[in-house]
Amino acid sequence: MRHGKKVNHLGRTAPHRKALMANMASSLIKNKRITTTVAKAKALRMYVEPLITKSKDNSVHSHRTVFAYLKDKHAVHELFTVVSEKIASRPGGYTRILKLGNRMGDNADMAMIELVDFNEFFTGFGDDKKAAGKRTRRGKAKTATTAAPKAEAKAEVVAPVVEEVAVEAPAEEVAVVENTVEEVVADAPAEETAENNDAEAPAADDEENKA
What does the DSSP assignment read for 63-121? Predict the structure, then answer.
């Protein structure tokens, strides 16, 4: 039983447990995810997350403090150059534990622990739900009010086009009518003069006969 024991000793002595946590934390920072047992993953999360928070302060003191825990200069460099930039805007909860089932052989409960910001599959997974939100009547009213000005704007855009068409159409028709009228006027005098000449000719003949 674990009466009042806040730290899981993992069946190891203190030096062995510190070396285990340092190695696992360095592997997690370098590879961004590792597979281990659930008990070790939970212990590692409590060990590595304060170090990740420390990396936000890029100072000599922070470098030395983190190196005292990790004992690996390559992991420290990776933490302060790559990881710190990714987690700069995150206030905490830098790791995620995903259970993988039981291990063949000793039936140990296995899990994968990873850095949250380096998993592209889960990036923005919760943002879609927050953006969707809860639909209410007020939201519909807002959309209706916002849609009305858009409809008016479309009407304003369409109106000048209709006016231009209405103005241009009669001009073309008038031009056509004027052309036809000119043709009729040009043709009409010739026909009328011919008819008048035909009408005057018999009249002249009658007058000659009477004489």
Answer: HHHHHHHH--HHHHHHIIIIIHHHTTT--S--EEEEEEEEPTTT--EEEEEEEGGG-SS
